[in-house]
Structure formats: C-alpha cells, structure tokens
TrEMBL record:
Pfam families with a match to the protein in the record: SET (PF00856), zf-MYND (PF01753)
Organism field: Chytriomyces confervae
The protein's name in its UniProt record: SET domain-containing protein
SET domain: residues covered: 15-278
Domain of life (superkingdom): Eukaryota
Keyword Zinc: yes
Transmembrane segments: none
InterPro entries in the cross-refs: H3K4_H4K5_MeTrfase, SET_dom, SET_dom_sf, TPR-like_helical_dom_sf, Znf_MYND
Gene Ontology molecular function, alphabetical: zinc ion binding
Species lineage: Eukaryota, Fungi, Fungi incertae sedis, Chytridiomycota, Chytridiomycota incertae sedis
SUPFAM superfamilies, sorted: HIT/MYND zinc finger-like, SET domain, Zinc beta-ribbon
Length: 729
C-alpha cells in the first residue's frame, strides 16, 4: 500500500525534486540534483479555485481567460450591485455570480457547478451578514464540491486530490479572534444551505476556512502583463515549498486554474527550493509582520537574518543622514539610537520615526488621490513627494520611492504622457532590481510595459505627433542617445523602436522563458513582439511611414495624379499584409476571419498565397483610399464643415462607403463575390465564404465584415480630426 509521503512524491512528478520533512522546516522540497534556471518544479491544477468579485464578470470561471462579448439582450442586475454586462455566457441560476467565455466551457464545468449553484445563490447575503470574505467561503464550497466529485467521478490526474487540502495546517488557534468569530457565525448559517452530499459540521467548515486562509495562493491574470490578482486557489503541492525573502523559484498562474513553479537561477543538488509569500520590495519589518499575521511564522531566512549594515535590505526603509547630505549615508538603528553609517552622527529613535511618518503620510495622501482616479492631482502630489523626500530624506532605493514611481508610471499612461511614463518606469526597474532575484516575473512585466511605451513614442515621432526635441528629457536622464546622423522623424522614430522597444521586449522574453516557460501565454506574447520588431524594422514602420508622411508629400507634389499616390498607399498596405503573413504576425490588418485559412494554406504553398495576399490587400486599400478621397472631396464641396465634429462626421460618412467598397474588392479578388443562396442550400458554402454559422444568414456575416472594415478605417480618421483639429487626410 502506498504511503502518504509516496503519494505526495508521485504528485510532484518532476525528476530531480524530493519532498523531505524535518522538525525545523516541516515538509519542504529540495533539489536531488543540479537544476538549471527555468527548470519546472511543480505544475499543479488547483484542488479548487475561485475568482475575486472584481474579476467575476471579466474572466471565465473554467479557463480564466477574458470573456468575449455575449448576447446584449441578457441584462440583469448583479447581486453585487453592478449592472449586468453582456460579456460571455452567464449562469442565471446563481444570479450572475458565474461567467464563462463560451458554451463549451460552461458545459465542461456543468457537473461541478450544478452542485454549488444553489448555495452560491445565497452566498452574498450570508457573507455580508457576518462580515466574512465572499471568496473565502466560496472556496470552502469549491473544496467540498470537488471532494464529493472525487467519490463519484474520475478526476483529471493533473489535479491535486482535495484530501491534500485537509492535510494542511490550519493555525486555527493563532488566528485573529475577531476574524475567527465572524467565520464561526458565518459557518453556522452556511452549513444550513449545504445539501446532504456536501454537508459537514460547522466546526469543520471553520477549520477548513482557516486552512484556506493560511495556505491559499493568489492567482494573477495569466493573459495580461500586470500582477493584478484575479482569484485565489488551493495548491497543496505549491504549498510544500517554504518561503524565503530571496527565493530561488517563483510561482505563476496559467489558464484553467493551474499554477507552475520554476527555478529562477541555477540550483545546486541538496539546496532547498523556496518561493516567496510577500512583496520583496517591502522592508524587513513589514515582510516579517505580514508573514507572522497571515502565515503564522517569524521569518529567519538568509536575507532576514543578515545584519542590516551588510545588506541592501536596509535601504528599503533607510533615512538619510541630515549632516552628510549624501545618498550613501543613512542612519542605522541600534540600542535606541540611530547612527550615521559614515560620519557617526546620531539622532533619537523618535526623530527617525517622525521623518518616516512624514514621508509615509505624504505618500499615502498621493495614493488616495490615485485610487479616487484624480489622476492629474495624484501625479502632482507624487511629484511633490519625490521633490521633497528623494535624496534628501529617503534613501534612493526606499520602498516608498519604488511604489511612487510605479504609480506615477500608471498616471502618466492614463494621461497619455508616454515620454514621462518611460522616465518613471525606468526608475522603477532601476530601484527594484537590487531587491528581487534575476528573472523575477514582476520585473519582466515592467520590461514588457516599457517596450510598449518605447514603441508608442517611436511611432509618434514617425507620425510627427512628437518631435525629436521632445525626447530631450529622456536624453538628460541617460535613457536615450539618438545617433548624430538621424535627423528626420522617420530616422529618429525607427531608432527608438529598433534600439529601445525591441531591447525591452527581448529582455522581457529572456526573463519570461525562465520564469514562465516557453508555452506560457505571456512568453508567447513577448516572443510575438520580438518577432514583429526584429525582422526588418522597416516592415513594422512601413504602413505608418508611407500611409502617413509619404502619402501627404506625394499628394502635395502630384495633385493632378492623386490616384498614383493612392495606389502607392494601397501597395504599402498590401506589402505590410504580406510581410505579416510571412511572419505569422497577427497585426490589426490580419485579424479578418480568413486569416487562419491563409496561414494554413501558406504552410503548404507559401509564395502563391503570399503574393495573392499582397495583391488582395493592395487592391483593397487602393480602392478604399481612392473612393475615400473622392467622397470626402464631394462632401466638402457640398457643405463646408463648421467644426471639428462636423468634419469628423464627414470623414465617417466617406469612410463608411469607402470601406464597403474595400470589402467588396477583396471579395472580388478572392473570387468570393456573394451570390443569392438557393432555397435548398443549408448555409455550408456561405459559412466558408462569410465565416458565418451554419444555417445562419450569410448576409448578416457579410455586414459584420463590412462593419469591421468601417471601424478600422473610420476610428483613426475621426480620432485624428477630433484630437488634432485638422484633417487627417
């Protein structure tokens, strides 16, 4: 008979990984052989997981992917107060507390959800009445449901058995008494709603809630580039890894409620594998306090045990010396006094605490403005905080400065001040790096965001929206040095994209390959960005360069041969589409329903498909621009627009008609000009042509494609007119 330890070892399923148990460390995981960085340590499907309230109507409960737009006629008030939206497929039984991205996901989860649906319906009222966390009690329910399913059905072998959840330590005796009292009261009511096959005593519900509270792991959005928490789950195998404030592993979320753990650096045989449970950019005292409160242990890891003066850990809450006025001279506390590490001058602990309090208060005031979405005011408050405290009171790597610059980066992006966002983001990365391990996932996410910002700025320079001189602030900070030979907007913009955006995406890709693995959606996304920018940079910039500046110059120089300029613009779009097909890059122009079919055909017979794609897109773009210019001129001759809004409406009308002809042209080139279906047809041919559903109305699908073309064409044109106050074409 297999022992419990052997069952746990089998569940790890990873060569070179051993599960051990000692009195000092409890159960923990060690490397039985040398492991290179990026080694997969654990890949675990949650024993149970739930989505947080804020993400409940944004992500699929089955696969944790973003919801698609669903039937807008299904409108209903949510129990949480927000109006029901039209995304995805919703379970009506529990009143908009369970969403799926598709009917397939809903059907796959039906057996499980049908067991919890009636209880979930009453859960908001039960938890609100007793001031208990909704996600906590829904996860309790999820564990009970999955435990029951294991007795009546065959569960996936990759999913951890729920009995492992009940092996975890509950720490019930050391839980906060007020929190425990709320959970106990909630459990009494909760137990009344449990059906017989899920029923357990209220006291066991409380103990299970304590286990979840002490051992659950937050799940972040697996498809985005931020660390936004979207759910919480029970991962007993991941919980086997102990905590360290300088971890050699990290855990990241994937789709379908899976958590993976990978090594961040090379690990020697016999070395313990550790992850972190806290923010690594917070001071030692805060980390230890958080761990004691939530995990019920006092951290004695190598980083926390190191003397403050011998570690950069001390910088996270260091106050600079008033006498030295140097960023490298700070006060070190000992025996009730704080002594400067350089000049030896001292201040009392009360003076040190007062300096810290003033900085924390100013930071908190600015953050309150940000949370209230007063973005302009928040950015101003943060700038004043930086001016007042950085390099004068707070050490350059103080945790409040890291937090401030990260929030300022978000503010600048909201305000579309991308140059400033780059400056703030670079400082976040610079200040974070000493406190996190190599290949840290959060640092990789910042690199990705920086790549996006650099590309936006580079393309804005190409389009003439940002002048090269406006990059001076970045040059002053040493973030950019434009080559002396680059003078035109196109040359400077190309340099920014090639040297900075591409470099950030490449750095992100290298880090994500280690921390996330090659197959993770975030790694794939970073790889797509590198592929898109790495193969000749002109391919990425060609549409903007030719469709923008060059087209205007041609039109001005050759007014009598406007069709020639239009054809050049059309050819540029066609070449871009062909290059995108060759690179398999899903650019905005290649998101049409036929794209997957083209890629599949190109794998078998590439060159004919490649050139036919160029022909198709070129002809379509040429027709669009030619008709658009003609219609716009006709409308302008009829009535002179009196305002930017009128001119925008004029552009919209012209773009609508032109886009319709564009779509008809591409159908004609493909030999797929629509014909009336006979009464005997079942819609199969129409489905192939239009991408519509079998048996559906083919013309509805055709109109959807035309509508998509109109939006692609009209939105940029109208936006340019409204924002810039001048004709965009």
């Amino acid at each position: 008979m297999t022992s419990k330890k052997e069952r746990y070892q089998q569940q790890l399923r990873t060569p070179g990984i051993l599960l051990r148990a000692t009195r000092s460390k409890g159960r923990h995981v060690v490397a039985s052989e040398s492991l290179p960085k990026g080694t997969l340590v654990v890949s675990e499907d949650a024993a149970a997981f739930v989505l947080l309230k804020a993400s409940m109507d944004e992500l699929c409960l089955r696969c944790v992917r973003p919801l698609d737009e669903g039937d807008s006629k299904d409108q209903q008030q949510s129990l949480f107060g927000s109006a029901g939206n039209s995304k995805g497929v919703v379970c009506k039984g529990c009143i908009k507390q369970t969403y799926y991205c598709s009917s397939e996901c809903m059907d796959s989860d039906h057996e499980r959800h049908s067991l919890e649906c009636e209880v979930v319906r009453h859960l908001p009222g039960i938890t609100a009445m007793h001031s208990t966390d909704y996600a906590l009690m829904r996860l309790v329910l999820g564990v009970l449901v999955n435990r029951h399913l294991e007795t009546v059905a065959t569960m996936p072998s990759t999913r951890t058995p729920t009995e492992f959840v009940f092996d975890l330590v509950s720490h019930r005796k050391t839980c906060d008494p007020k929190w425990l009292a709320c959970v106990e009261a909630c459990a009494d009511d909760f137990a009344q709603y449990l059906p017989e096959h899920l029923s357990i005593p209220a006291s066991e519900i409380v103990t299970l809630a304590c286990r979840i509270n002490s051992n659950s792991h937050a799940m972040v959005d697996p498809t985005g580039n931020t660390n936004q928490e979207v759910g919480v789950g029970m991962f007993p195998m991941v919980a086997m890894l102990n905590h360290a404030c300088a971890p050699n592993c990290s855990f990241v979320s994937t789709t379908h409620g899976r958590m993976i753990v990978r090594t961040l650096r090379d690990v020697q045989a016999g070395e313990e594998l550790c992850v972190t449970y806290v923010d690594l950019c917070t001071p030692r005292s805060e980390r230890r306090g958080k761990l004691l409160e939530t995990k019920h242990f006092w951290c004695e890891c190598e980083r926390c045990s190191c003397l403050s003066g011998e570690s950069e850990d001390a910088f996270l809450d260091a106050i600079l010396c008033e006498e030295c006025k140097s960023p490298s001279a700070y006060y070190s506390s000992k025996d009730g006094e704080s002594t400067c590490t350089q000049c030896g001058s001292t201040i009392t602990q009360e003076q040190l605490s007062l300096a810290s309090f003033k900085a924390e208060q100013a930071h908190s005031d600015a953050h309150d403005l940000f949370k209230a979405r007063h973005t302009d005011s928040a950015l101003t408050a943060y700038a004043q905080f930086i001016q007042r405290f950085e390099n004068t009171v707070l050490h350059p790597n103080h945790h409040l400065l890291i937090s401030a610059y990260a929030t300022m980066m978000n503010c600048a992006q909201r305000l579309r001040d991308y140059v400033s966002a780059i400056r703030y983001g670079s400082r976040v990365i610079q200040k974070m790096r000493p406190h996190v391990p190599a290949n840290w996932p959060e640092l990789a996410d910042f690199e990705f965001r920086m790549g996006e910002l650099w590309e936006i700025v580079g393309m804005a320079v190409v389009e003439g929206i940002i002048s090269p001189s406006e990059l001076g602030s970045l040059a002053n900070d040493g973030l950019i040095q434009v080559p002396s030979g680059a003078e035109s907007c196109q040359e400077v913009g190309s340099y920014v994209v090639r040297e900075h955006a591409l470099r950030c995406f490449e750095t992100c890709l290298s880090m994500r390959r280690v921390a996330y693995g090659e197959e993770h959606v975030r790694t794939i996304e970073a790889g797509e960005q590198v592929a898109r920018l790495n193969v000749p940079i002109v391919a990425a910039l060609l549409p903007s360069i030719i469709l923008g500046q060059s087209r205007k110059r041609l039109t001005a120089a050759l007014p009598e041969t406007l069709p020639n300029a239009v054809l050049v613009a059309g050819l540029a779009g066609g070449i871009q589409a062909g290059v995108a097909l060759a690179l398999k890059v899903p650019s905005a122009l290649e998101k049409a329903p036929e794209h997957k079919e083209l890629v599949a055909r190109s794998e078998k017979n590439f060159w004919p498909v490649f050139f036919s794609t160029i022909l198709r897109k070129s002809a379509g773009f040429a027709v669009f621009f030619l008709i658009f210019d003609a219609l716009k001129a006709k409308l302008a001759a009829t009535k002179t627009p009196a305002s930017k809004a009128a001119r925008a409406a004029q552009n919209l009308a012209a773009a609508t008609l032109a886009a319709t002809f564009y779509r008809l042209t591409t159908w004609f080139i493909d030999g797929k000009l629509p014909a009336l279906p006979s009464a005997s047809e079942d819609g199969t041919d129409a489905e192939k042509v239009f991408g519509g559903r079998k048996g559906g109305n083919p013309y509805a699908a055709a109109l959807e494609q035309i509508k998509g073309s109109v939006l692609k064409a009209a939105v940029p044109l109208v936006a340019m007119d409204l924002v810039l106050g001048r004709p965009s074409w």
